[in-house]
Each structure stands twice: as C-alpha cells, then as structure tokens.
Amino acid sequence: MAIKSIFSGRMEKRIPVAIVVRLTRAQDKPASEPELTYTDNVSAHGASVVSSRPWQIGEVAQVTSLKDEITISGKVTYCLLLPGNRYFIGLNFQDRRVTWSAYRTYSGT
C-alpha cells in the first residue's frame, strides 16, 4: 500500500506560469459572468487557478486562455482558502492536454 500512496498525487511537471484566463462553472445555464483571473501553475493535464469564490470538489470548470481563446474543461480536485478571501482551485483536465501558447513556450512542448 505504501507504493500506491506515493503515486496517488500529480505525476506531471508543474510550470509556475501566470496565464490570464476566464473561469466559469460549466454547469451554469445560462452561463454566469466569467471571472477574469490567472493561473498559478500549469501542467499538461491540470492547472492551479486563483478564484474569488469557493468551489466544490468534483465541480466542472471551464477555463479559457485570454490570449488563445482556447477553452478546457476540468474537474475541481481541491479548493484552498487564501488570504484576502481568494481561493486556489486545482483543476484536472482529464480529456484534453493543455495547448495554451504560454504553457507550450515554458514547458518546451
């Protein structure tokens, strides 16, 4: 069991890059006003994003790179309260790799 716990976390390299994004709840119909925010770090299949509101684990978020206008949907894996009533939300992009140009520039892909 000890080996399983070692591999239960993220295995991909995180790139500490701030990418300006629009963040919305995928379930909102009609879509609520998107939150203009930024990433703290990004990996090939996930991101840590700063939000002004709390999110529930398992919620689906849509994140759109402002520069590229590429939207990726991801499930919330964690939500951590930050000073100033801000939150870090962890997103897992299960069905798609991150293709934002800023990520490609810094990751070497």
SSE layout and pairing:
Elements: H1 2-6, E1 20-25, E2 35-43, E3 46-51, E4 60-65, E5 71-82, E6 86-92, H2 101-107
Antiparallel strand pairs: 1-2, 1-4, 2-3, 3-6, 4-5, 5-6
Describe the protein's architecture and organization.
Helix content is 11%, strand content 42%. The chain is built from two helices and six strands; from the N terminus they run αββββββα. It starts with a helix and ends with a helix. The chain has a six-stranded antiparallel beta barrel. With 109 residues, the chain is mostly beta strands.
Gist of the model:
With 109 residues, the chain is mostly beta strands. It is built from two helices and six strands.
Keywords:
6-stranded antiparallel β-barrel; disordered N terminus; 109 residues; Thrombin, subunit H; mainly beta
Beta-strand content bin: 35-45%
The CATH superfamily is identified as predicted glycosyltransferase like domains
CATH architecture field: Beta Barrel
Mean pLDDT: 87
What's the N-to-C terminus distance?
34 Å
Classified by CATH, the class is Mainly Beta
Secondary structure class reads: mainly beta
* C-alpha geometry: globular
Q: Low-confidence spans: pLDDT under 50, at least 5 residues?
A: 1-8
| String of helices and strands | HEEEEEEH
CATH topology: Thrombin, subunit H
Q: Order of strands in the sheet with the most strands?
A: 1-2-3-6-5-4
Query: Could you say how many structural domains there are in total?
Result: 1
